[in-house]
Design brief:
alpha/beta; Aspartate Aminotransferase, domain 2; Aspartate Aminotransferase, domain 1; seven-stranded mixed β-sheet
Amino acid sequence: MPTATNPRNAPVIHRARANSIHIILGLDSPIARNRARTGNRLQTPLTDCVKTPLYFDYHATTPVDRRVLEAMLPYFTQHFGNAASRSHCYGWTAEKAVERARACIAGLVGAAPREIVFTSGATESNNLALKGAVEACRSRGNHVVTMATEHRAVLDPIRHLQRIGVKATVLAPRPDGLIDLEEFRRAIRPETVLVSMMYANNEIGVIQPVREIGEICREMGVLFHTDAAQAFGKVAIDVADCPAGLMSFTAHKIYGPKGVGALYVRARTPLAQQIDGGGHEGGLRSGTLNVPGIVGFGEAAAICAAEMETETARIGRLRDHLYARLEESLEGVRVNGSLEHRLAGNLNLSFAGVDADALLTMLPDIALSTGSACSSASPEPSHVLRALGLTAQEARSSVRFGLGRFTTEEEVDYVARRVAEAVGKLRKAAPARALSPAARTT
């Protein structure tokens, strides 16, 4: 039972049970012990003997930060109440925890806590924003504008809206992945009710000029939604400077738990609920709140608020170091998307004459990807890279490197060497295709 030496009021667990739980949760691994010794910073020896496998897919998801896990644990066992239970202390405690987390998440983007609506993740947030806004504004028009490089969590809901009669304009980006603002302005019609453009791309890391997009939307009287799942907690966002009425977030991209997200809904923004059954979250999203997940989301946001500036600078240096190592080791390496307007931890590269799937097969000790995790089962080349103008073969020769909070310089050096070796072997096996312009196909 709790004692005075238990200041966090966490559940007390017998030593034998604690050891088992630590093993189940992955807290007794060598990496976890190393983090505990070094203040939560993952470190590896200054040798090539890094511990593998290495994780370089931080855009797909992130590991839960130990500090986040510790904040969550009491709400699974001791403080397990339903935040909607208003008649006893268990519910009151859960509700207070939810509101603390809501304030932390709102604070990270300069919003009011009442403007944060909790969901199960960015996909649900996007669906609520897109379908809810179009339904709420249907008397004003039936046209939406988006980009070809959006995540499927935006493109698929828009396809659904098209099937029920909504018109959509899908704009191609410039070759660097950025929107052409004049083309965007011309795409808005009198019947346009919604624009949805992501803040930062999940594959190429390109950061859109959301402030300028929002200003055009405000000028033309159109509601603006942005999927900020990749940007939240990684770039400075202030809703006072970004005229977005709706903005989607998720916890698992910022070292929080999976299965919890949020939608920022600016005051007086028209939005129709999409899930009925209890009127939770101001009537916009019914369903029992995931209190442990929300607590973890809030803690992850608070950590980002305190550490984002220094963390972004460190990760950016590592990304640039990785690119420099690969460029000096290999010919035929091209960056996909703008390097200037880009998330610090993103590097998307095409390796001429190399099949990316074959490359990843040769690197079982490194977690990499060729694009979005949600599209990894598709045999088609990345729709994002194709929208930039890459040929099918160029898209299939591209790899996404995702660096994050626990990436070290020793790991970057290891990855650069292993990738260069594997690319060299693949090119040697198929020299006729490597670096050959004739190999370009559409």
